[in-house]
Amino acid sequence: MAVIKPTLTLVSNASAATTDPGPLSVALTLSATDTLTVDEVASGIYTFAGATSHTTIFDGSSFGADGLGGAVGGYIYLKNTSTSATVFIGIVADDGSAADIDASGDAARLFTLKAQEFAWLPYDYTMDITADSDGAATLEWWRFDRG
User: Fold this and answer.
1) Contacts of 95 (CB under 8 A, 6+ apart)
2) Could you give the CA distance from residue 132 to residue 91 in angstroms, rounded to a whole number?
3) Average of pLDDT values for 71-98?
4) Could you list the residue range(s) of the whole structural domain that residue 111 is in?
5) Which residues contact 70 (CB under 8 A, 6 or more apart)?
6) Helices (H) and strands (E) in the chain, counts
7) What one-character DSSP code corresponds to residue 27?
8) Residues 6+ apart with CB under 8 A from 118
9) Are residues 63 and 100 in the same domain?
10) How does strand 87-93 pair with strand 127-133?
11) Cα 27 to Cα 71: distance, rounded to the nearest angstrom
12) Domain shared by 30 and 102, yes or no
């Protein structure tokens, strides 16, 4: 088994600061660190050809050989490495089809990654994770299987 140590740090000035004012009336410093045991790592890069391009990034039914139905799962890191396009992340039932999810009312859309934004989240392998873009974009992904 291997260990990874993700750390999240949020720092901002108070809203009254003259340089880089923050969202709160007080300065913010928040940090969280965890030690996670993982046994498999996979990564890749998906390049969207344009606004009509969408794909399944993670097929949940292809993971979780532990037979626990996603109870073990893993963690994923996603980053929109493009400089201007937006990437939309969504879900569908296992073996569903990736679709256009850039409409604001689309129930399958989980979140949006603007240019250079990233996300770190747990993933139970019970659904497929899909991606769509509003233009030419590149999505970097990493999957860490819980050990």
Assistant:
1) 59, 61, 128
2) 11
3) 86
4) 40-146
5) 60, 64, 124, 125, 126
6) 0, 11
7) -
8) 77, 78, 79, 80
9) yes
10) antiparallel
11) 38
12) no
Give me 107's structure tokens.
Answer: 């129930």
Using alpha carbons, list the distances in angstroms from residue 15 to 25, 28, 29, 107: 5, 10, 14, 34
99, with CB counted inside 10 A (0-12, 13-18, 19+), is middle
Check: CB of residue 114 under 8 Å from CB of residue 102.
Answer: no
Shared domain check, 54 and 18: no
What's this model's pTM, rounded to 2 decimal places? 0.86
pLDDT tens track for 85-133: 999 999 887 666 666 666 665 668 899 999 999 999 999 888 889 999 9
The whole-number average pLDDT for the span 61-69 is 63
Residue type, 45: I
